[in-house]
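Structural prep section.
Before we set up the soaks we want a predicted structure of the protein with magnesium ion in place, mainly to decide which crystallisation condition to try first. Input record follows.
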Amino acid sequence: KKYVYFFGGSKAEGDATMKSLLGGKGANLAEMVKLGFPVPPGFTISTEVCKYYYDHGRKYPDDLKDQVVKAVEELEEVTGKKFGSPENPLLVSVRSGAAVSMPGMMDTILNLGLNNETVQGMINATGNPRFCYDAYRRFMQMFGDVVLGIEHSYFEEQLNAVKSKRGVKLDTDLTADDLKEVVQRYMDVYKNAGQEFPQDPWDQLWKAIDAVFGSWMNERAIKYRELNGIKEGELLGTAVNVVTMVFGNMGDDSGTGVAFTRDPNTGEKQFYGEYLPNAQGEDVVAGIRTPYPLTKLEEIMPDVYKQLLDIFVKLENHYRDMQDIEFTIEKGKLYLLQTRTGKRTPFAAVKIAVDLAEEGLISKEEAIMRVSPEHIETLLHPYFLPETKQNAKLLAKGIAASPGAASGVIIFDPSEAERLVKESSKDVILVRPETSPEDIAGMAAANGILTSTGGKTSHAAVVARGMGKACIVGCEAIEVEEEAELIRVNGREFAKGSWISIDGTTGEVFEGKLDSVKPQGLEGPLAKLLDWADEVKKLGVRTNADTPRDATVAREFGAQGIGLCRTEHMFFDEERIPAVRQMIVAKTLEQRQAALDKLLPMQKEDFKGLFKAMEGYPVTIRLLDPPLHEFLPKEEEDIKSLAEEMNISYDELKSTVEELHEFNPMMGHRGCRLAITYPEIAVMQTKAIIGAAIELLKEEGQTVIPEIMIPLVGHINELKYLKKIIVDTADAMIKEAGVELNYKVGTMIEIPRAALTADEIAKEAEFFSFGTNDLTQMTFGFSRDDYGKFVGDYVEKGILEVDPFQKLDRIGVGQLVKMGTERGRSTRPDLKVGICGEHGGEPSSVEFCHLVGLDYVSCSPYRVPVARLAAAQAFL
Ligand code: ADP
Ligand code: MG
Ligand code: MG
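Run finished without errors. Recording the tokens verbatim:
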């Protein structure tokens, strides 16, 4: 069986398609040789050998030795040098390289093949003893460190000793004799470590190969695969590349560099890179000397520079993507040592994809596939640069609930936050154990929100995401002492007014004030890419919006309708909440009606605003849904003032509030159950919706098709009962107004029973919308407000792969979605079906919605662009 693949001269046995067998490095080196680029000859030992090695107790296949010997002979032939010969010795580098680039693996060994004899041969051949001893000592150090595990610092000590003895600072100031002494001292370092430096080049080579294969299972590499979600068995292992050495350290007409064919930060179409004269590969990375910008090469060696630029263009055209290239110049001759698709910032990813498509190098569809939807989200929010974070003090990590970067002083009381921002435009981070609907104004005023409890769909998370505000929830490491107005973290205390910074994209909390970078918004290349996505996608993208402001933002981001308006969110401002509370605690129909009469005109205006902002696109409005406890007055003061307003005694109201207490409010008196007990609530909301639509039609001639949505239905009769009330109210109004107005009545599917009986429910419902937050809660039986405490353990112990509130559980919850859709359409073939849970903006969940044939997804405004791209990718 073939294990070794040669490249060099003008032929190569591998090519770029063979990444899984040859690793990325090996496959691309072979490809470049095929393309006729100057690559030092070499060979790749395949990843299959790595697999064999581990399957057979760290033994190699029998015929590997012969194949390696043959490959070395071939190298000797092509280069005219001889491995281990004192005449004109062949030196090689030994490099690891898996199918995906993996920083955790073995460091490269350069100059292998040097020993006391061959170094002499090198001196004879080059006439440059300084260079030869320099190469020798580098090799001894790398080999000792990487292969034999001798502490790096032992070598450094000896090098420094010689430097101070000679009174010089830089390595480059050492003479040939100095370096020769360094080599001698290194021999002792080996001895003192109980090792012997192998003089036999073949011994060196096999030990280095062992070390590369061994590094596949070292801790760093295993950790790296784990962190990057690379599963065991997904890759065969690493390949080993043995490459003829070329020397960038042979004088000022030599050097080494790295380059990107486009700017990896901005995506700008210009070369970008660094060049270090008279140096070997590792020097650039190690940061020992400061490299020049690549353009400096134009001054030093204009011809080589031109040749390099020419190669950049060719490589980019060939790979059809931005390349990250390593090169070395030996005495004015250019060699390429590596090329790969370059890593880039999200910003650059979008720009490069769009530019490449417009340059005709890739298709629009490919451009769409090249950008990750998650990256788009980060472009719409402020962010911290990696450098900024590196220099900051990390305090804790919580659940990343809403992306973006924010700094501010810690404030615990939402109304205080609101006041501080209003009066003195302070930067505030609202810190709370959890948030509740009353905190909305404070949340809106703050730069960011941090809570110590809760999960991805907790109140704080959902609201912050809607506002496009940085938010971290479930940060258990932080103890919030509301009374004392301080937080405790790792034994330290931070009082109210201390600066902190939060990264809602990663969940990190930092001490102090960090500078953030402003987002660039939806314009330029990103707007173009999303337009292309719209041309391709089949799935509609709507938004969850409760205010005209949210709706307008979402329209700008490309939403085509509102998939969920949570009417209760309209009730939380200071002016309205008393009326809402009054409605809830009312003992008599009259009391309730009085409260509803106050709310009706406000609601109508809200809906008019929403309808206007959506410019004729459909608007789905959900009737009042939340558990009542969310509205109840809790503080004595609030109860007092409400009692006054309602003209009842404090005690009476207090006992009513106590009566309304529920043990499990999420499964309590909420959703359609509220309107079934109090139909007048549904009547008021219907009047507000239909009234707004009629007025808009009469005043501005704008047509809207309101979609009235009933939450938390589990039984067809619930829907039947409420639908009749809604239809009676609406039809009477339309008739009286003498207008033509279409509207729909549909339901949320968020209780498993509704999904199971979807065929029945569809007889009444004119549309479905899967509320996957509640559906996940009820299917798993995980409380949305409490699961944050244990979901981490579930993921860590591998019981769940991911948080199911974040990524739709296709097998369980998804099955209900699929079945509900199918059953619904079996009775009503034209049934419109959407999803409005937080999953609507999560790429993998969007893909699932596409696969099961939903009509649209609905998500918070800032995730609309994410969903548009994800929907297009799902189709492609
Ligand atoms: P990494 O995967 O960490 O980039 P590489 O195997 O690419 O490791 O090598 C590390 C450094 O050594 C790079 O700068 C590379 O250009 C240089 N290098 C590797 N092989 C050779 C060689 N045969 N001749 C000269 N320089 C080399
Ligand atoms: Mg490299
Ligand atoms: Mg719900």
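Observations: The chain has four domains: 4-246, 247-344, 386-511, 537-627+662-875.
Flagged for discussion at group meeting.
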